[in-house]
Amino acid sequence: MTGTIDYGNLMHDAMRGLIQKVLEGVKETGLPGEHHFFITFDTRHPLVNIATWLTERYPDEMTVVMQHWYDNLEVTDEGFAITLNFGDAPEPLYIPYDAIKTFVDPSVEFGLRFETQESDDDFEEEIAELVARVESVDEAEDEEEAPKSDAEVVSLDSFRKP
User: Fold this and answer.
1) Which residue, of 34, 46, 141, 156, has the greatest Cβ tally within 10 A?
2) How far is it, in rounded angstroms, from Cα 71 to Cα 93?
3) What is the dihedral of CA 108, 23, 65, 107, to 10 degrees?
4) What are the pLDDT digits (tens) for 100-118?
């Protein structure tokens, strides 16, 4: 046993377990109410499986939105598979939990961030930008303006070793 407890990694494991439980619930009953997810992941992770054209377009990281249309959601202890629509072209994806950088549900102002060098302000700005982008798509589809909100962030920066 080492001389210290690695709280940072323990928290990451717990947060990834939370994502797994949420996705298992969605698989069983669908997305409840206004819930939807922005999931940013590292496209370079060795176990990520996405189309070559997506890897070329997003060589470092990619954010997907799980909201109106998704199919074939499969949830395992290591990650999840899902088919999402990219410009009327369904594409299957496999995302291991270890590749996830952020998981945000703006409908309830909830967000998780994993091991990032960005400051909290940068992360909050990124979330606000993602929310605005999705809301503008929704407005175009529904011709109604959705309320904008800043997401609450659970950050592990204070647990990180220097």
Assistant:
1) 156
2) 11
3) -10
4) 999 999 888 888 898 654 4
Structural element, H or E, at residue 122: helix 120-142
The SS3 of residue 9 is: helix
Instruction: Point out which residues pair with 41 in neighbouring strands.
Output: 62, 100
For residue 118, give the DSSP letter.
Answer: S
Contact between 120 and 87 (Cβ < 8 Å): no
Closest CA to 93 of 69, 64, 114, 113: 64
Beta bridge pairs of residue 65 = 38
134 in Cβ contact with 38 (< 8 Å): yes
Indicate the pLDDT class of residue 6, thresholds 50, 70 and 90: confident
